[in-house]
Amino acid sequence: MTRHFLRDDDVTPAEQAEILDLAARLKADRFAAAPLAGPQTVALIMDKPTLRTQTSFTVGVTELQGAPFLVDGAKAQIGTRESVPDVARIIGRQVAAIVWRTYAQSDLETMAQYAGVPVINALTDDFHPCQLLADLLTIREHKGTLAGLTLSYLGDGANNMAHSYLLAGATAGMNVRIVTPAAYQPRQDILAEAARIAAATGGSVSVLAEPGEGAAGADVVVTDTWASMGQEDEKEARAVAFAGYTVTAELMATAAPDAIFLHCLPAYRGYEVTAEVIDGPQSVIWDEAENRLHAQKALLAWLLAENEGGTDA
Ligand code: NVA
């Protein structure tokens, strides 16, 4: 069976740690691995807007001595001009791996079913697992560990980042708190799966409504845009719904004194976070953005090694 990375719990706790270890090694020595030497091509299909993802995968594949091939989703029109299974078989017969940023998680799963090569989730409506590898690498760099740390996520509890924090944080043995209004609860099946993982790793997951309580004593405070890509029409309604969930200096003061602040970016200063916090001394967002590169290189190298000798490619 070809292995893919479609959601954060597609890797075990041991595998997640292995990928993060490799990412740290590749950060220290950027050209230490060349699994795509040949070179082999990796398709990067971008249906939604992208800056960090396109940059870090393009640079990463190049540094692994492969050839990145950027597919403009607007031109390819996957799912309308051609079906996902047809596209999967056309591209999958020519490339070493497919990286796809799209809307529906079910389309990504269909791509994986038909591609015959590893498929990587570069963000869907439901998950953003590559971002979480970068976040965990960043937290580990600044805190020296992951297991046992408390991470508080404030904002939209039903979006891709909240879901990925639940799954990836639980896998890492962290205590993940989702702090969100009642109308924006995480998906129950994802919350249940995160709780199941946390029970085995020694972590925990919880959903809280009150920001001050949610951030109290946290080692890591994170947030995300209140209106994700595809939700632009809801921007004003969401600004009302999430008023009070802004990460301010006052809120950071309720967290641990040495707490760090993360944001996957792009950030909307004055909405989900103040400029004082995101541009202040506790913010590690530039390390986090850089770590997309190292984490994804490690993921690609690890996934291709895992699939070496696979029979259905
Ligand atoms: N939740 C955000 C993440 C951006 C990286 C979005 O989907 O737009």
Automatic annotation (TrEMBL):
It catalyses: carbamoyl phosphate + L-ornithine = L-citrulline + phosphate + H(+). Residues 3-141 form the Aspartate/ornithine carbamoyltransferase carbamoyl-P binding domain. Carbamoyl phosphate binds at Q77, R101, H128, P129, C130, Q131, C264, L265, R292. It is found in: Cytoplasm. Residues 148-303 form the Aspartate/ornithine carbamoyltransferase Asp/Orn-binding domain. Pathway: Amino-acid biosynthesis; L-arginine biosynthesis; L-arginine from L-ornithine and carbamoyl phosphate: step 1/3. It is an enzyme of class 2 (transferase). It comes from the Bacteria. Keywords: Cytoplasm, Transferase. L-ornithine binds at N160, D224, S228, M229. SUPFAM superfamilies: Aspartate/ornithine carbamoyltransferase. InterPro entries: Asp/Orn_carbamoyltranf_P-bd, Asp/Orn_carbamoylTrfase, Asp/Orn_carbamoylTrfase_sf, Asp_carbamoyltransf_Asp/Orn-bd, Orn/put_carbamltrans, OTCase_ArgI. Its EC number is 2.1.3.3. PANTHER family: ORNITHINE CARBAMOYLTRANSFERASE, MITOCHONDRIAL, ORNITHINE TRANSCARBAMYLASE, MITOCHONDRIAL. This is Ornithine carbamoyltransferase. The lineage of its organism: Bacteria, Bacillati, Actinomycetota, Actinomycetes, Micrococcales. The gene is argF.
